[in-house]
What does this fold into?
Amino acid sequence: MRKFWLLFSQTTTVFLAAYFVVATLKPQWLDRRLTLSSIAVLEAPAGGGQRTASAVGSFSAAAKIASAAVVSINTSKAAAKNPHSDDPWFKFFYGDQGRGEPQGGLGSGVIISATGYILTNNHVVEGADEIEVILNDSRKAIAKVIGTDPDTDLAILKIELDKLPVIVLGNSESLQVGDPVLAIGNPFGVGQTVTGGIVSALGRNQLGINTFENFIQTDAAINPGNSGGALVDVNGALMGINTAIYSRSGGSMGIGFAIPVSTAKQVLEGIVKDGQVTRGWIGVEPQELNAELAETFNVKVKNGVIITGVLQNGPAAQAGIQPGDVVVAVDGKAVSTVAELLSAVAGLKPGMAAPVSVLRRDSKTEIAVTPSKRPRPRVPR
It folds into this structure.
């Protein structure tokens, strides 16, 4: 009997010691049943596996609505002819290697009309010999370029297909910093991808990307191939066209830029109606007003845009605007930056005089300027 009592005591002592060690070093082992049970409830909730609380905060509805109208764009360009290909000596040494390899490109676009109009970036389709559009439902079509606007880096394409999904155009003017947004496109050609983020800033300009810049900045991941894709709000409405990123590696670093849909609407209307976007132009060289320029031109004001050069026989010169004048308003709209001045002048109707308020020395004067049609940018050969 004593032997059995001794064995029981030793067994109990070992068990209690083991329990103490586990409770001290691995207490989660003792709660394993509760932990596994809790995970099982979250992964398989009541109601046939449908999501309940996990769906709160999801943007799947917005992504589903907008994704159908976002397309992938494949472009091809014939190989350039070598300038020496007709040289007999070149042919003797290199044979018929007069042409290089054909070039291809990737991008995205957004269907904005049931009749087949697609909005994308100009740099996506510029110089392309053939443009293939691939819909989210796998249908394909060859697109025709209706018009381009290099000043805003936008282009309008058209395809001939039935039952096209169309995105809803939103109001980009209502966006605020901090609003959640989704970027939809075809990055690196891997297929349609949706990324999320917020509006990081509004009205970004002086980036040297386009002539007219008023970008929406977002931290939603935008990568090569996303150009021309959609930036949408939580309702799936189009807020912008993804255009560029700031990157040191070629990939997303959380700084992406989109052209507001308000700008895209203006470009769309001009191209579809007139075949091109018509903007006003007065022929001046404006600069931001700073202390150095103010001293050089003996200007005492602090706000406005200083004119450092005037094109001879241009609209501004003919109206009497001079170097050293500080423009403070165009057609009643106050301007304080070069970007604001360019946008205000671009909005003027060519051939119709508009008042330009300038400060000259110590006096303010209003000059009637009749703008001309803005020349199209020269395409480098």
Q: What stands out?
A: Residues 30-54 have pLDDT under 50 and may be disordered. Residues 2-25 form the longest helix (24 residues). The two ends are 107 Å apart (CA to CA). The chain has three domains: 67-79+86-158, 172-274, 280-373.
